[in-house]
Design brief:
alpha/beta, two-stranded antiparallel sheet, 49% helix
Length: 338
């Protein structure tokens, strides 16, 4: 009796295993049911020999079923292993496709940036192009690099003013200044004259150089001192105290001679180093050809050089581009500005 119960438990557990591991269900198969029925019959009849033979048949049947199950398990294991390999290969392919897609997007983005840079570099598009409704007063600044200028044609490019380079350091005079100054004053443009500041000269001698070249007129824009880096000065900037000292000497000298406070031109780097929180009484002409200017001490600017890649009619020189600027105000403000 106990043996029969153990057999039933064994068959039941074996069937559960088969159901979980394979797609086959061996519980209740005809062969097993038949042998169990024969065993019961022989037990009632007392035929021990037949019952033993029947049990042997049952053992052999179960043994065969177990072997078949083991074979099925091996097949399932191999199928599962194959499925896992295919899944791993699929995941690798998906990752590879994602990397390829990301690389393609990156390449397209880099090409777009290069194209944008090339178009900005040759002046086809301007990174900065301020609204004319916000900044209606525009003008240029020129030097010998623009070569021969037809000022009547240049003045017809919807501009209102021009700053012309006159001097540099203590001795240098722009070779085109005299012509540019005389011809520009025959147009309707308001004219200003600028000096390129040298960190290697005294402020007094630089002021003397400018005064000797630039005459005083009633309709002139204020004198301009261009304070920017040249050569290796950006990597090895001169002392702030020394620059401020010489700059202050030149500013005082020009204001005394022309009767008006000069304008200071600067890049944002030179401004932050030498002008921030100092020279508050002077108007600032700031350069930023990429974005709108932001002075480090939150000071307001008067003129803004917004691009060095504009192309206008009226000049022929080694430099095919020309600098463009806006005045921070409307036309009425500009006409009253001194």
């Amino acid at each position: 009796m106990y043996v029969r119960i153990l057999y039933k438990i064994y068959y039941f557990l074996l069937g559960i295993v088969f159901l979980r591991k394979t797609d086959y269900n061996y519980i209740g198969r005809p062969e097993i049911i038949c042998t169990e029925h024969i065993c019961k019959k022989h037990m009632h009849t007392g035929n021990k020999e037949n019952m033993a033979a029947t049990q042997n048949m049952q053992y052999e049947s179960v043994s065969g079923r177990v072997e078949m199950c083991n074979a099925d398990l091996r097949i399932c294991s191999e199928r599962t292993k194959g499925l896992g390999n295919r899944r791993m290969k699929g995941e690798k392919m998906n990752r590879k496709k994602k990397w390829i897609a990301a690389g393609a997007v990156l390449i397209v983005l880099l090409l777009a940036i290069l194209v944008l840079f090339a178009l900005a570099r040759n002046g086809t598009i301007l990174l900065n192009n301020p609204s004319r409704s916000q900044y209606p007063v525009r003008g240029v600044d020129v030097s010998r690099y623009q070569g021969h200028i037809d000022w009547n044609i240049l003045a017809s490019n919807d501009i209102c003013f021009a700053f012309i380079k006159a001097t540099e350091g203590s001795t240098h005079v722009d070779p085109c200044f005299q012509y540019n100054y005389e011809e520009s004053r025959k147009t309707s443009l308001r004219i200003g004259v600028y000096h390129f500041f040298s960190y290697d000269s005294e402020g007094q001698t630089q002021a003397d150089n400018y005064i000797a070249v630039v005459e005083k007129t009633d309709d002139m824009l204020p004198p301009v001192i261009d304070l920017e880096f040249y050569g290796d000065k950006e990597q090895n900037p001169p002392s702030r105290d020394q620059v401020r000292k010489e700059l202050a000497i030149m500013l005082d000298r020009l204001e005394e001679h022309y009767g008006m406070r000069p304008i200071i031109y600067a890049t944002e780097k030179s401004y932050a180093l030498y002008l921030a929180d100092a020279f508050q009484e002077y108007d600032i002409w700031i350069r930023n050809v990429v974005t709108a200017p932001h002075l480090s001490d939150h000071r307001q600017w008067t003129f803004w050089q917004y691009t060095d890649r504009e192309k206008l009619e009226g000049y022929q020189g080694d430099e095919k581009y020309i600098d463009m600027n806006v005045f921070n105000g409307n036309m009425e403000d500009f006409l009253e500005y001194q």
